[in-house]
Amino acid sequence: MRNFELRDEHGGVAGEASSKPCCAPPTPRLHEGPMTEFVLESSTPHTALSHLALYGLAAILDDAGHRITLSWTTGMDPRPVIHSDLEPDQIGETVHAHAARRAENGWLHEDFDVGARTVALMSPRISKLSESDWPRLQRRRHEALDALTQDGSRLDLRLIAALGEPCYWSKTPKREIRQDDAASRWEMQPRNQGSEFVKSRLRPLATHVSSRSSRQIVNGLTGASTVDGLGKGRTATGLAPLGPTDDALAWCGLWGISQLPTTHRFGGRSRTTGHQGPATGGTMTLPAWTRPWTLGRLRTLLGCPQLATFANPESSDLDRDIVRAWLAERHIVAAVRFPIHRYGTDQAPERRTQHGTILSTQPPAHDEP
């Protein structure tokens, strides 16, 4: 196997992971027959959208009943890859069906009236609510969650849980509600002019993706073509720099948030998997690995504290060496750190992930004595 030759922050090469035995059980082989590889050719480890599009595409295929694993390719120019027994057109058909069902009905289309305004019920960050709105909002949300639970819609429930919810329990010293404290840091939709995540991003993307053929969707995922129906350079919704982004790739990327849970805390801001630092900025850290993983294994390792310790510049050399070995034993060849930059004004802030820095888990080379 070729080495996973990612260039790290010092210009060095992130080599193949350690061959030491792994403490965790090995990833099971799901298929006895030949596997096909579906590579997202235009995606690179330096863009957060590439990572989340891999997670989201895998989750969509898994939710449709297909057995898949996912990884990154090896070599000088690594790309995200899905391993399955599906042909490309079958993958395109599955993504199309996923978007088409959600373009027609379901929780994406549930609205909530706030006075003269209407917002999407399941958006994690919405306009200000009055004291009497909160119980009504919670009741409506619980009804929607109960319906999804009854239908067995696991992926939808994962995404809603990962996105978080409008927060009513975290307050400032002046007893003002800090509504954003229970929302995922991956949800970066600006809230200016009444826009919010479900209404302004998920709904229109579902419509655009469902209007395309399976072949067009495949071309968008692989980078053979780019169709940006939303336009204005913000389709990636903070997961990539400004610029055209294919609708199908963005759809998968936003569903990739489903694999990065938000954990609520009674006192203070909720914790988002992969995020470190203050709510208005900080960094995101995601792994790169070359052995095929199941989605369950991915979720386990995305939430491991070792990634954050390894990517933290303030960690001691001893701590970094310990977690470096732990990560390498699990075939994580690099951690990719994405700074978050805040643009705009205090009234209409916009957060976006920046170019990712690759941190190799290979031990630094030492000169021979």
Any overview of this molecule?
Residues 1-29, 265-288, 345-369 are annotated as: Disordered. Residues 1-11 have a biased composition (Basic and acidic residues). The protein has 369 residues and is α+β, with helices and mostly antiparallel strands. It has one domain. 33% of the residues lie in helices and 16% in strands. The strands form five sheets. Strands 10, 11, 12, 13 and 14 form a five-stranded antiparallel sheet that branches. A three-stranded antiparallel sheet has the order 3-5-4, covered by helices on one side. Strand 1 and strand 2 (13-14) form a beta hairpin. Helix 1 (48-63) packs across helix 7 and helix 2 packs across helix 6. The protein is globular. It starts with 5 loop residues before the first strand and ends in a 9-residue tail after the last strand.
Highlighted features:
alpha+beta; three-stranded antiparallel sheet
Which band does the percent of strand residues land in?
Answer: 15-25%
Structural class: alpha+beta
Number of strands: 14
What number of structural domains do the residues give?
A: 1
Instruction: Give the N-terminus to C-terminus distance in angstroms.
Output: 31 Å
Name the helicity range.
25-40%
Shape: globular
H/I helix tally = 10
Major sheet: 5 strands, antiparallel
Taking Cα atoms only, what radius of gyration do you get, to the nearest Å? Answer: 21 Å
Task: Detail the poorly predicted runs.
Answer: 7-32
pLDDT averaged residue by residue: 88
Provide the succession of SSEs: EEEHEEHEEHHHHHEEEEHHHEEE
